[in-house]
Amino acid sequence: MLRWIVAVCALMLALPLSVSSARAEDGYDLWLRYRPVEAGYTIPATSIVSEGSTPTLTAAAEELKRGLTGLSGKAIDTGTVSDNAIIIGTPSSSASIAILNPDLTKAGEEGYVIRTTRLNDKPVTIIAANRDIGVLYGVFEYLRLIQTRQPLTNLNIADTPKVKLRVLNHWDNLDGSVERGYSGTTIWDWWKLPDVRHPRYTDYARANASLGINGTVLNNVNSKAVSLSPAYIQKTAALADVFRPYGIKVYLSARFSAPIEEGGLKTADPLDPAVRAWWKAKVDEIYAAIPDFGGFLVKANSEGQPGPQDYKRNHADGANMLAEALKPHGGVVMWRAFVYSHEKPDDRHKQAYDEFKALDGQFADNVLVQVKNGAIDFQPREPFHPLFGAMPKTPLMMEFQITKEYLGFSTHLAYLGQYYEETLKADTFAKGKTGNTVAKVVEGAIDGHTLTGIAGVANIGMDRNWSGSDFDQANWYAFGRLAWNPQASSRAIADDWARMTFSNDPAFVAPVVDMMMTSRETVADYMTPLGLHHLMDTGHHYGPGPWVDNLERADWNPVYYHKADINGIGFDRMKTGSNAISQYTPKAAKAWANPKTMDERYLLWFHHVPWDYKVKSGRSLWDEVVITYSKGAADTTAMRNRWASLKPYVDAERFDAVATNLMIQEREAKWWRDASVAYFQSVSKRPLPEGYAPPEKTLDYYRSLKFPYAPGN
Questions:
Q1: 108 pLDDT exceeds 60?
Q2: Domain named Glycosyl hydrolase family 67 catalytic: which ranges (predicted)?
Q3: Which of 230, 398, 511, 553 is deepest in the core (most CB within 10 A)?
Q4: Is 285 a catalytic residue?
Q5: Which is catalytic among the residues 63, 172, 399, 405?
């Protein structure tokens, strides 16, 4: 009996989106819910005409039929050109498209055109592209217009992605766990692959294609060499087969020491001929099984991972060895710039710049250097990474974190689209010019790079709602939309997501979008106010730990970053301290150089400041720290109350799930506030501002809390 129950539960988890839409609203459908539109909104679609039969065009036609059937509430014919038909295809796949001759000059390789016109005197809508994948992207865009209740008359839309590689990085392990994952175990059932291909894999591909995501790295950057073994290559090939119709290439994280562990060599020296030959043979083997394999993601010489520096070589030596093996097949290397080691105890903020800046121009032309949005590690707030704008001869690939390692896991509501946009809009002042934003660096617009990329560390797991909470789906969605167009508006993206995921009622959409747009600021206030950072507890990164000072290396300890004592607090990154500020262009550095004029949200990131220092509000720094912590905690209560007022607009299951998470967030925000204030008061020896309550518990109590089994370790 127990085995039968387990089998039924497993089957339910694997049900595709199209089947689950008949079930209760549990979040599985993501933003592709396709529920019937309300009376008064007209969908002028009577039939679908698709004259192509490739797997991608078939997927596009099926998606369009699924979407239109669900949204209109009626059956949609296929195959005939009637009044208000929708014609999809490319000029080479469809005679009707060829006759209509849409202008596809602006569509590029992956873009599309959506246009209302006439064919044989019948009103029709065409969704056309130069390649099949563009048609699929156009279909999803057309369905989005309906889902967000946009007018469908007089359409004349042309769009193409601004970034070439739009990739999810899965930190999934072969044992089923997910590092920094808060939505259950990995969705890749490595044990049953390549034989069992769960329907969930197709739904994953559909969801990503709806955003224009065109690549996925299947395994953790802290990789195992066995991922490159023949057995696992066949497993990877099975996933590639599922994803291919949706325009998604598979990539693998490659362990640098694989020639030793898998190949039996005595060295992994990138300049050793035998090592280079091993990688060439291994790459040939992969492409024999996966002809459109994307390439490798590599974490090397960071956090104990092997790399070229083990052999007194540099990052370019290591990356170029792999690039040489991949290039004949069209593959790329994404070489991560997140590096820090025991041998360099200097400010971690500086290490990536110090190791990579001097290598600009030395990387092969199929190598991208993948750079995190900030120089420390996905903190609730970070200034943009100084490498952006500093390596004009090298394509820099942005790395965002979608999973919320430092922002409350999956139970705290924090919309990261606003964070991504903030980083992308930051001005690097590259080449001394205003307007050379991080987005333009990533797009290759400043230096003319054609190989461009943006990556997001995925928050996807086997939880029924994919990401651990309904609102965390918005971060996956926002990442995909900004990867397609890094200059898009995160507020407009949030508006689309709220409408597609919950309701188009303005009484729901407006307050929810406002809540989303302030949510990340709220989290930063109760976790890391005024530029404080890296204050989380050890290992699991769950909850506050500003007192931690006993870890193996200095820059693992929060005390290293806040440097609080009785005189003041903050990390001095000016010339008087680590001088990390010098890694930015002079105009960019100027924004943070003067504590009197700078954006005080970054004050303690760049300056060590006395507790009695007067901030812009006129209050002392100590009072401002306490007040900001308290404001963040109070704002979570406001968020919970706002959600409670929206109950009439949301199905009961998802409403209750979000309400529960907001209750958890409110409680844990108060914990963050109280524990942090208790610790910093013990250091500053100052009284709390008048009217502000003392921490509920003693500092010893907060320090005693342990969470050895927190998820995501």
A1: yes
A2: 146-466
A3: 398
A4: no
A5: 405
Identify the residue whose tokens are 């991080």: 438
- Three-class SS of residue 80? coil
Asked if residue 553 has pLDDT above 90, the reply is no
Q: Is 326 left (phi over 0), alpha (psi -120 to 50) or beta?
A: alpha
The CA distances from residue 548 to 197, 409, 501, 685, in Å, are 45, 20, 40, 19
Strand order in the sheet with 77-78: 77-78, 47-50, 85-89, 122-128, 112-119, 156-159
54-70 residue pLDDT tens: 999 999 999 999 999 99
- How large is the angle between the packed helices 490-501 and 473-484, nearest 10 degrees? 130
Per-residue model confidence as pLDDT tens digits over 507-533? 999 999 999 999 999 999 999 999 999
Q: For residue range 118-153, what is the model confidence (pLDDT) as tens digits?
A: 999 999 999 999 999 999 999 999 999 999 999 999
CB 248 within 8 Å of CB 209: yes
Q: Which amino acid is at 300?
A: A
- pLDDT for residue 15: 42
Is there a contact between 438 and 388 (Cβ–Cβ < 8 Å)? yes
Q: What's the pLDDT tens digit per position in 604-651?
A: 999 999 999 999 999 999 999 999 999 999 999 999 999 999 999 999
What's the helix, strand, coil split of the chain in %, to 5?
40, 10, 45
Is the CB of residue 287 less than 8 Å from the CB of residue 293?
yes
pLDDT at 4 over 50: no
Residues 6+ apart with CB under 8 A from 222: 171, 179, 253, 299, 303, 305
Residue type, 467: S
Instruction: Give the Cα separation of 399 and 408 in Å (integer).
Output: 19
pLDDT of residue 9: 42
405 catalytic per annotation: yes
| CA distance linking residue 622 with residue 603, whole number of Å | 13
Q: Which of 51, 261, 310, 377 is catalytic?
A: 377
- CA dihedral for 478, 479, 481, 487, sign (positive or negative): positive
In the block, tokens 């696992």 appear at 232
Q: Of residues 77, 109, 175, 303, which has the active-site annotation?
A: 303
